[in-house]
Structure formats: structure tokens, C-alpha cells
Here is the input.
Amino acid sequence: MMRIFFITLITLALTACSKPYDKYIGYWKLEDTSYSKILEIRKEAKDTYLVNEDVLSAANLSGQNKKEMVLEQKDNQLGVNNGLTVIPFSLSEDGNSLRIRENKYIKITDNEAKTAIKNRQDCNQLESKFREQRLAFRSFVNETEKKPRNELLEKYTTLQKQIPDCKFYIPKAY
Here is the structure.
């Protein structure tokens, strides 16, 4: 009985010491979109929180490697400073959803995030192989090239469907 009391006491002490910002830590998947986007919030050092806006993408839109942004702590909320103001991250009461402006994110497990990252890597590799093999065919193929070209397109269409959330352009076979 005494053991249960001490375990409960230690749990309460640890809970009381945790920061309100620690509830933000983890992976968050953008909800209601046609493309997958997973945001990661992590803690570095004592009181520094970082955000990676899309762990599925290694580079930003200009092709440069992305950098994590330091989050600001204000009024028990985390937010990102855009140079003009701090955009707050609004966490739900239950800690399972996060709003950043009009975007809603749902908390996902580490395993779900790792699976999504692996699927994206597999998809990128498949797309590279497809583009490389597709170079063997001209834009307009003659009758003798039609069958091997169509077989290639069908092969990669099937392979693409086997990877969840894998979307890249494959022309229709004709």
C-alpha cells in the first residue's frame, strides 16, 4: 500500500513540474487536405521548442534544405514569429488537435509519422526510377514502342498504388 502511495506521489510531482508547452510536443498531421503534411514540434535544451513545418519534405519551395524554427512562448501558448507578429498555435483542451490560423492538425503517433516518412521516401524513389526509365521513350512513340511504353506505364501505376499517399504524374497508357 505504501508503495502505491509513493508511486502516486512521484507521478503527481512530475506532472506538476512539466511545462504547459510540453503538450505541444509530437507529430501533427494536417487534416482535410488532398496532400499529406506532417508538422513536428520538439523540445531542445531546457526551454526551447522547435517546429519543422513539414517532415515529409526535405526542402522548402525554393529547393533549399528546410530549417526548424524556434517557437515563442506566450500566455501558455507556443507560436511562430513571422517577423511582424507571433502566430499562435492553439491547442485543444484534450491535446489532440492543434490550430494554426485556419489549418487544423491532428496529433499522430511517432510510428504513424515514421510510416508516412518512409512512404514518402519510397514514393520519391519510385518516381525517380520511373522518370529514368521513361527517358527511353520519345514523346511520340511509334507502333513498335507503344507496347513496351504502355507496359512501363501500367507497371508504375500499379507500384504507385501500393504506396499510401504516393502521387506523381504517370500518363495513361494508349
